[in-house]
Design brief:
2 copies of one chain form a homodimer. The first copy, chain A, is α/β, with parallel strands linked by helices and 359 residues long. The first copy, chain A, has 3 domains: 44 residues, 434 Repressor (Amino-terminal Domain), CATH 1.10.260; 131 residues, Response regulator (Rossmann fold, 3-Layer(aba) Sandwich); 165 residues, Response regulator (Rossmann fold), CATH 3.40.50.2300. Chain A is built from 14 helices and 13 strands. The longest helix of chain A is centred in the middle third of the chain and has 16 residues. The first copy, chain A, is elongated and about 90 Å long. At the A-B interface, helix 4, helix 5, strand 2 and helix 6 of A face helix 4, helix 5, strand 2 and helix 6 of B. The structure holds a DNA duplex (16 and 16 nucleotides).
DNA sequence: TTGTAGGCGTTATCAG
DNA sequence: CTGATAACGCCTACAA
């Protein structure tokens, strides 16, 4: 591949001049400038990002660390980040941690040696990101944490309004007339799972409903977890008539368990998930869910990073994105209850500006 | 961050010795070796991949270029590639092309300046990969093409057996008693779409069934395309009783259109997709599909690349992965036909070794 | 305004 | 077996 020296020779100028033209680091006489540009064009020259990074102590790479790209919520996040990054000349290095904090550490340590311009991280379980990010920040590298936060995180962050989303979902169930509400949460050491539980509890408290401890089941954020915990819930007496699931994968497992138990959703049990994955629309019945935009999560995080790169030295940002409740066919009045006009009910139930639609 | 010079000082040896210890490029006296290793440990030293890459003329990065990570089929491919790459010390740079060949070109050109160890590419529409890859190969960088191939591709490739998968799916429909089969294909300039159509046609030919041209609809590989083309098919007289969709997204759109037209799947129209995405299991009715392992596609491609890196100079490899037909509830006998015992029928219908299951 | 030279952190070569 | 030293390609003072 052509290098600067060759371009210099082709344009009959010195190496430095080529660099100056390329970086606008000095004003170069127009005819000379043109000669250089022509040579660059002719040779299809592109500067070595490696050499440039080494010299500048910073590359145009952004490290993106996520639990698992095959988890259906994350691709949109990655895509959002990549779009903003790409259009600003940055590239993404993608790392999966499988929620394993030691794998995360490996990535964190290795990424450093690429001198990335910044990091966007969805922390793994028990992540030690706070410590690591400190050392990145000392080196002038920004770290933005998204979706959920590790212990003691004080840096930039972008998350969904999990508490509010869960609160709204729960209120919706309440307004359908349910009183025996259960929830299946994700791992409660994850901030997003915890916040969703908090929102659920707040709605319950406000409705002055008692929440039996066995009505709160904690599990992993996947189908299997939702399935097994739902089986437990279905054996309880009295049996809950509505379940708020910590995310859509859990809800999917719940749907399966409900069906296998010979019960029907929504006639016997109503169900609301979280994330509003694409599949929520196509399940049977279609799944109600708290919608959050993974794409926006990604773009926002990248945006913050770029602002930092451009010199924003302000205090840590903590952006919280709004959620939207999508009511589909997995929600109905509890068995035996008089049929309600849910549309008007639902509309009254929600704050102004909270979108709600029957899809 | 600590560098080699510091390690050398800490261990009271010369810079070269540190390098030798780290790369086993020369035998170093045990006590000295230990001193170096200790210093490395103590300082948490990791060699700069940038400097190393510059010097060695090759980094440990693998460029992965795909159309769009939010397309549900691709995450598994990426994950497969990342897994084998990671466990061999390589990292992935992820690039989305949006099927835009000019964006692909930008990535291809820029990636070069990172001196990647190799490239794994799912080519965009009208990709010029063949030309580009040539220049990469001249530089000693391997390029593996997966899922679909650009024009005149002669390098390493990994694809699914699209023709055979489509053939089996079509045969299944035939054996259910359908005679009016239609297909909605992806863009036929994409090899995978073309091969799937070929398989469909072969089965039709073998069954001595006439295939009216309007029974073959070409569109994009997405829900919208499937939806609109299905509406067209449903207006045909006679109306097809079975549709083979070029992929699951098309099938999803078809499902929607069928429902909206007031028809039922599978009672009025049977449907089979391709890819066997996760959502195929959860649609209503659950979607039959030709299953291909995206994960395996990714691992296989990465494996080939690593073999090349380790010196494999053999001729171009063209690996073709098997598919599996998954029959779910979207397939039944055509309306008016006597009910058949599909289980035995289905089993007899397929070649030995072809897995088939009702999920 | 243009050219020169030093150095970023490694690795590889070559004396000792 | 160990230690200097010269690249790798680029950027940036600084000198001309």
């Amino acid at each position: 591949m052509a290098n600067m020296k060759e371009i210099a020779k082709m344009a009959r100028v010195s190496l430095g001049t080529v660099s100056h033209v390329l970086n606008n680091s000095a004003v170069v006489r127009e005819p000379v400038r043109l000669r250089v540009l022509e040579a660059v064009q002719a040779a299809g020259y592109q500067p070595s990002q490696l050499a440039r990074g080494l010299r500048r102590d910073k590359t145009n790479m952004i490290g993106m660390i996520i639990p698992d790209i095959t988890n259906p919520f994350f691709p949109a996040v990655v895509r959002g980040a990549e779009d903003v990054a790409f259009s600003n000349g940055y590239r993404l290095i993608l790392c999966n941690t499988d929620n394993d904090h030691s794998k995360e550490l490996v990535h964190l340590n290795e990424l450093r040696t690429y001198l990335p311009a910044g990091l966007i991280v969805i922390p793994s379980n028990f992540s030690d990101l706070t410590t690591q990010a400190e050392s990145y920040r000392r080196a002038g590298t920004g770290v933005v944490c998204i979706d959920r936060l590790p212990k003691n995180w004080s840096g930039d962050s972008v998350t969904a309004d999990n508490e509010e989303g869960a609160y709204n979902a729960t209120r919706c169930l309440l307004q359908f007339g349910h009183t025996k509400l259960a929830t299946i949460t994700g791992p409660l050491h994850l901030t997003n799972a915890k916040e969703r539980l908090d929102g659920f509890k707040r709605a319950m408290r406000e409705a002055r409903l008692h929440l039996a401890p066995e009505y709160v089941q904690e599990t992993t954020f996947d189908k299997q977890g939702g399935y097994s915990k739902t089986l437990i819930l279905l054996r309880l007496i009295p049996r809950p008539t509505a379940i708020f699931a910590g995310n859509d994968m859990i809800a999917l497992g719940a749907l399966l368990a409900i069906r296998e138990a010979g019960l029907r959703c929504p006639e016997d049990i109503s169900l609301i998930g979280f994330d509003d994955l694409d599949l929520a629309e196509t399940t049977n019945p279609s799944l109600s869910s708290v919608s959050q935009s993974g794409y926006q999560l990604g773009t926002t995080a990248a945006r913050i990073l770029l602002d930092r790169l451009e010199g924003d030295k302000g205090p840590a940002k903590h952006l919280v994105l709004e959620t939207t409740l999508k009511i589909r066919h997995s929600v109905a009045a509890p068995p035996g209850a008089p049929r309600r006009n849910r549309a008007s009910k639902g509309r009254r139930s929600t704050k102004p500006g909270l979108a709600e639609e029957r899809a």
